[in-house]
Amino acid sequence: MIPESTIDQKRIEATEQVIRPYIRRTPVVQVAGPEFGLGAVTLALKLESLQHSGSFKARGAFANLLLRKVPQAGVVAASGGNHGAAVAYAAMKVGVPAKIFVPKVSSPAKIERIRQYGADLTVVGERYADALAASESWAAESGALPVHAFDQCETLLGQGTLALELQQQEGDLDTVLVAVGGGGLIGGIAAWYTGRIKVIGVEPEGAPTLYQALAAGRPVDADAGSIAADSLAPRRVGELMFPIAREHVDRVVLVTDDAIRTAQESLWRILRIVAEPGGAAAFAALLSSRYQPRANERVAIIISGGNTVAVDFSR
């Protein structure tokens, strides 16, 4: 019998079969390093910005709603924005009520998406931790099922399906660069690859959650700043993902806000790819040389989200 808390390839494969009818198989774009002023490396950009609700979070949201028993009161989630949009979208598709709490730092693009999907939205507090506390109170009062953004087994299993999909699309990778907030995405990816390729975490200097956790040997509170604060600054990483990261994440590199802005601009200028700050953070590690691949290294970069108001056709 496999323990319910186990996050491994077998359970990720089983989860993928359940959620497959509800998620997109997002494309991979191959790019030559010199196009971005880099050396002789092959880059594979996994465009989760094209996933339902605008980010990879839809995978974990559907895993929770389809693998767990949802009560009549529906579901409740706290989010910097992307997880809330994903849970709202999944609830709309499955046909259950959703209550979403987001902090004031959440992007207007993400707030608008949550409202479009018909969820009951409350904006509360300054940071993710404030929204989480409000959601926990609501769950206790209403009986709604809490869907955690990263510290939940089903969330990790759902995010791990991205790695399964990436391996099918790009089987000869050496390295994958993954932005880190609470660690749900990198936890799922690392659980899938289990050291077979290098998994590199990327965090803003203003929100070094996994970086500080690995240094301390356990999840600890970290700063929650950065222009990517609505997606990469939950204050601390999840308890469930940390043992996976300690075992299977090669290292974590930190990038500046300026590097994230440059990555956003470069993706748009050269490839016409729209990425929010958190979605561009992993790419920023390459452009700013915080991660320096060796010659002919095959590197995948997860473009994890595209919920931004940077492109506005009404102007």
Polypeptide structure, described:
- The protein has 315 residues and is of the alpha/beta class.
- Helices cover 42% and strands 16% of the residues.
- It has helices spanning 9-19, 57-67, 82-94, 108-116, 128-142, 153-169, 184-193, 209-216, 229-232, 242-248, 257-271, 277-287, and strands at residues 28-32, 42-47, 75-78, 98-102, 120-123, 145-146, 175-179, 198-204, 251-255, 298-303.
- The chain has a 6-stranded mixed beta sheet, sandwiched between helices. A 4-stranded parallel beta sheet has the order 5-4-3-6, sandwiched between helices.
- α4 (108-116) links the parallel β4 (98-102) and β5 (120-123).
- α1 (9-19) packs across α2 (57-67), α7 (184-193) packs across α10 and α11 packs across α12 (277-287).
- The radius of gyration is 18 Å and the shape is globular.
- The model has no long low-confidence stretch (mean pLDDT 92).
